[in-house]
Write a structure and sequence with these properties.
Length: 110
């Protein structure tokens, strides 16, 4: 992470912008890996993104899709459960309709 262990007040806005850009690039790279059939690498990229922004549902959906493509049904169930917990605890929200629909589709229920 840029400027780690530095107390530069002036850099806070720039760091937020850099993190957001980094996360967007990871989403694009992860999606490209998924579209070319490399679900394992897509999952790794999604995990890197979630380490930066755990509340980004696009990254959660990318990870769910990658696990689904890898045939990891139990992992899909566990990941969706973790997402629901995090959203409930931190924001008092539920997963978006898009995420719920993906989850049900991956389990063969939608």
């Amino acid at each position: 992470e840029p400027l780690v262990d530095r107390d530069y007040v002036w850099s806070e806005g720039a760091l937020r912008s850099l993190r957001a850009t980094y996360v967007e690039i990871l989403k694009r790279v992860g999606r490209a890996h998924l579209e070319t059939g490399d679900a394992h690498e897509s999952l790794q990229v999604a995990e890197r993104g979630l380490a930066v922004d755990v509340l980004d549902e696009d990254l959660w959906r990318l990870a769910l899709e990658a696990e689904g493509a890898l045939g990891l049904r139990q992992a899909v169930e566990q990941r969706y459960g973790r997402l629901r917990e995090i959203l409930r605890e931190r924001l008092a929200l539920e997963a978006t309709k898009e995420t719920r629909a993906l989850y049900l589709r991956l389990l063969g229920q939608g």
